[in-house]
C-alpha cells in the first residue's frame, strides 16, 4: 500500500470513530467556553488580564489542549488493541510509512480545527472582554489564531509520539494530563525561566502579547516543535523495532 492509500485509510478511521470526532469537537468547545468565562471575569480571567488581553482571550487553550492530547493519544493507542496493528502491517509492510501516514492524519484535522478554534475564540473572547479588548490589536489577534492552530497540532503530535512509545492511551494521558494541568505550573513557580522551555509553556508564549523572560512567540513554538519531533522520533523507532 502506498503512502497516499495509507493516509486515505487512516483518514477514514479518524472521521468514522466517534471518540476521535468527539475529541476534536471538545477542542473547540472547551477552548471557547473557558476563554469566554475568563474574559467575563472582572479580573480579566488571569492575574495579568488587564495588561495582557491576548492571554485572557486565549485562556481556554490550556483546557482545549487536553482534548487535542486525547485525540493524538487515542488515535495511535487504538492500533495496539486487538491485534489491529498486525493487520495494518500486512497491508503496509513499511512501518515508517504507516507511522508517517498516521501522524499526517492526526496533524491535518487538528490544525484545521485549531485554526477554527482560534478564530472563534478570538471573536468570542474579545466580546467577553468588552472595553478591555481595545488594547488588543488585530495583528496580535491573528498571531493568536495561527499560534493556537499550530500549538494544538504540536501537542497532539507530542501525545501521538508518546503513545507509540508507551503503547497505551491510558498511560499517555495519565502522564501528560497531570503534567499539563499541575506539574508544569508547579515547576514554573519553583524553577523560573527553566520551565519556560517545557513544551506547553514555551508554545503558549505565542498567546501572550509580550514575554519578560523565556522564548519569544515563534521561538516558543519552535521549542514545542522540537519536543514533538523528539516524541515522534522515539515513537517511530518504537514502531519500527518492537513487535506488536
What's the gist of this structure?
The protein has 244 residues and is mostly helical. Helix content is 75%, strand content 0%.
Major sheet summary line = none
Task: Return Rg in Å.
Answer: 18 Å
Based on the structure, what is the oligomeric state of the protein chains? single chain
Helix and strand content put the structural class at: mainly alpha
Euclidean distance between termini CA atoms? 19 Å
Order of helices and strands: HHHHHHHHHH
Strand content: under 5%
Q: Residue ranges: pLDDT <50 for 5 or more in a row?
A: 44-49
Q: Write down the overall mean pLDDT.
A: 87
Shape: globular
- In helices, the fraction of residues equals over 70%
Number of helices: 10
Number of DSSP E strands: 0
Overview of the molecule:
The protein has 244 residues and is mainly α. Helix content is 75%, strand content 0%. The chain contains 10 helices and no strands. The longest helix has 35 residues, at 95-129. It is globular.
Please give the structural blueprint.
Elements: H1 3-16, H2 18-40, H3 53-57, H4 61-77, H5 84-91, H6 95-129, H7 138-166, H8 169-191, H9 199-203, H10 217-241
Could you list some keywords that capture this structure?
single chain, 244 residues, 10 helices
Amino acid at each position: 500500500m502506498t503512502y497516499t492509500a495509507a493516509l486515505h485509510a487512516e483518514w477514514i478511521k479518524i472521521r468514522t470513530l466517534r471518540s476521535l470526532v468527539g475529541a476534536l469537537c471538545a477542542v473547540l468547545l472547551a477552548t471557547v467556553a473557558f476563554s469566554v468565562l475568563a474574559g467575563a471575569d472582572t479580573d480579566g480571567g488571569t492575574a495579568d488580564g488587564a495588561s495582557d488581553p491576548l492571554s485572557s482571550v486565549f485562556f481556554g487553550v490550556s483546557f482545549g489542549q487536553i482534548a487535542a492530547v486525547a485525540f493524538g493519544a487515542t488515535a495511535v493507542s487504538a492500533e495496539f488493541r486487538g491485534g489491529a496493528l498486525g493487520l495494518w502491517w500486512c497491508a503496509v509492510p513499511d512501518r515508517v510509512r504507516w507511522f508517517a501516514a498516521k501522524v499526517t492524519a492526526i496533524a491535518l484535522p487538528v490544525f484545521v480545527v485549531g485554526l477554527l478554534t482560534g478564530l472563534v475564540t478570538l471573536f468570542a473572547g474579545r466580546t467577553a472582554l468588552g472595553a478591555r479588548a481595545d488594547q488588543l490589536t488585530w495583528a496580535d489577534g491573528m498571531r493568536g489564531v495561527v499560534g493556537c492552530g499550530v500549538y494544538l497540532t504540536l501537542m497532539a503530535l507530542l501525545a501521538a509520539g508518546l503513545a507509540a512509545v508507551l503503547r497505551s492511551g491510558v498511560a499517555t494521558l495519565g502522564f501528560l494530563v497531570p503534567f499539563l494541568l499541575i506539574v508544569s505550573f508547579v515547576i514554573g513557580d519553583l524553577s523560573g525561566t527553566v520551565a519556560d522551555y517545557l513544551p506547553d509553556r514555551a508554545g503558549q508564549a505565542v498567546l501572550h502579547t509580550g514575554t519578560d523572560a523565556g522564548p519569544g512567540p515563534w521561538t516558543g513554538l519552535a521549542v514545542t516543535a522540537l519536543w514533538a519531533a523528539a516524541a515522534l522520533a522515539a515513537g517511530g523507532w518504537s514502531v519500527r523495532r518492537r513487535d506488536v
